[in-house]
Amino acid sequence: MSRARVLVMNSALGPLDYRVPHGMQVEPGSIVVAPLGPRQLIGVVWEPERMPSDAEVGDNRLRNLIGVLPAAPLAAPLRRLIEWTADYYLAPPAAVARMALASSSALEGAKTVTEYRATGLVPDRMTPQREQALEQIGNHQGLIRELATIGNVTDAVIRGLAKVGALEAVEVDIDSPFALPDPDFAAPALSPDQRAAAATLVDSVTARAFAPTLLDGVTGSGKTEVYFEAVAAAVRERRQTLVLLPEIALTEPFLTRFAARFGAKPVAWHSGLRQSQRRRAWRAISSGQALVTVGARSSLFLPYANLGLIVIDEAHETSFKQEEGVHYHARDVAVMRAKFEKIPVILASATPAIETRQQVALGRYAEVKLPGRWGAAEMPAIEAIDLIAEPPERGHWIAPRLVVAMRETLARHEQSLLFLNRRGYAPLTLCRTCGHRFQCPNCTAWMVEHRLVHRLACHHCGHTEPVPTVCPECQSEDSLVPVGPGVERIADEVKALFPEARTAVITSDTIWSPAKAAEFVARMEAHDIDIIVGTQLVTKGYHFPNLTLVGVIDADLGLDGGDLRASERTFQQICQVAGRAGRGAKPGHVYIQTHSPKASVMQALVSGDAEAFYAAETEHRREAGAPPFGRFAGIIVSSEDQKAALETARLIGRSAPHHEAMEVYGPAPAPLAMLRGRHRFRLLVHAKRALDVQDIIRDWLGALDWPSKVRVVVDVDPYSF
Ligand code: ADP
Ligand code: ZN
Ligand code: ZN
């Protein structure tokens, strides 16, 4: 009798064993339908030795598998990736595998529709409608409905023509293939630096071996053009490329740019796809027809038939870290996928993470550099504005020197960008009479006023309410005051200063779809916008040659909180936003408003000495035993019942194993002590690099029990520490 171990798509369950009925063919990776109680679940067949079961079941108690789906089995490198991700991030393997099987409709295989085409046969019995239809249809092919429209007749006329043989029925796949990119469509002439960098990357593609490379080039150096050469090399070999982008908002401009270079758009994969688009993309990816896919994090787990290259663009971006469901870092998982697939992976960034630089220093990653901007463009000049020495006017946030620069920029008909990483009008609203502050009922967070929509909103759970006219505490009227600026408030200040200028607020509130992003790009290119006021959404990827001035409203914002990554994050963010200035022939200028111009990160930004800054930060991390020299894992305990959460967190803390290479801090209230109505506590595990913390945590938590209303999630390599 033959049995199969199956990873069923239920995260609460481990792998289960089934009987393979006579005549059914399965192999590791096969996608099957398995019974579970009264239900039927999709599952993936796994090698039993690689996926131990906690409950071996005797042959006589096995249930039969129901069927095998027509989709191709998941290949061994992808199965290794699923195992690795589940193991490393302490996640249920089924939750990881589900990201690979992301379109249940595609798993069912091809679906066809009947189309008709003219055969040239003239029907014996001709009617005016038939004549008219055949004349109009000509060589068209299509569904009954379409042909009826083209021929301007009823569906019945078309059916009649098919019946008498004047139209022939053909079965076609509903998922039409994607247009193929042409590697030679519009290849740019590269500069000598770019050519050398591209040659190294192309070699890594043709060598067909695991090879991680950091493509380290200043903003505007042409990193995209350079890695496009590697993509072209993979396309020439008919091998697939995955380009990972940090944000969906960036996919649309990327598609346009890619099409200009390759004559066809790549396949886009993101959470906004309709079911039919998802199905078509999944099938083209798993058959190998889709040669280039661009996507956000989740595209990493798709079953590429013939992957030849992975590119991680803006590889330093924090949004590659997934903080819900399976907590994983897409950058790190991408490198592992490349390793299992034995292919090159390119990490492109102007401000690589310290972790990535360390891999280069250790010789594990190759490095390719682009030292200067492409063409005539120069790096922008960066100045700090000391907010204590040169304060803005009372009740304002833009310092006089920046106002002057904005006026001059407008006079030259060039564009400006003011950056403040805070959505809404004001981060806090309070009552002037009694001091009441508006807090989210579900989270430990202030409600943020959004004037564009006249509401108070929580940025953590999405709760909103109308802006009240009287204070709910003391009933005073007109006593509510906004405290501090958000982008909307800065935009008001800009409009008051420059009423003639066209000002646009660019945040996730205004750019909430790829179409909105495309519209924004078009307006910038047509110079319908003079001044952008935006959040981190505008810091990445965009290339506007006429944008020559960047002002950072509050450079100190990211330094609060005191976590060890704060300086690095601030440096990266300000470098990226500064990198939007002066990307064309006109020189760029950047002003950084700060209360601490002497801080090492501000000094590094002004002097442009990234190396010295990184060296000092790396040393700092080494001393603290922080990544990449040591490691952290968070254990987050949450429940709607605060007492239950705290008791479980304490139980976990008390049961912590003793290890000289490891320390456990907490439990303490998590950074957001209440989120979406759940109270949260966090234990932080700090360990030496060499220690297998995952194994320790698995044993530690595995021996404990807690009430079902308490959720315990492990965050391996948490973003903040
Ligand atoms: P980065 O990703 O390094 O910030 P980009 O790849 O966006 O830089 O390049 C910046 C701008 O310079 C883009 O408009 C790009 O098309 C242009 N560019 C870069 N290299 C070339 C080249 N060799 N030929 C033509 N245009 C180039
Ligand atoms: Zn009040
Ligand atoms: Zn909330």
TrEMBL record:
User: For binding Zn(2+) 2, which residues are annotated in this chain's numbering?
Assistant: C440, C443, C458, C461
- Alphabetically ordered keywords of this record: ATP-binding, DNA replication, DNA-binding, Helicase, Hydrolase, Isomerase, Metal-binding, Nucleotide-binding, Primosome, Zinc
Where is Zn(2+) 1 bound in this sequence?
C431, C434, C471, C474
Its Enzyme Commission number? 5.6.2.4
Query: What cofactors does this protein use?
Result: Zn(2+)
As given in the record, the signal peptide range reads: none
What Pfam families does the record point to?
DEAD (PF00270), PriA_3primeBD (PF17764), PriA_C (PF18074), Zn_ribbon_PriA (PF18319)
Q: How is the quaternary structure described?
A: Component of the replication restart primosome.
Q: What is the recorded name of this protein?
A: Replication restart protein PriA
Source organism per UniProt: Sphingomonas echinoides
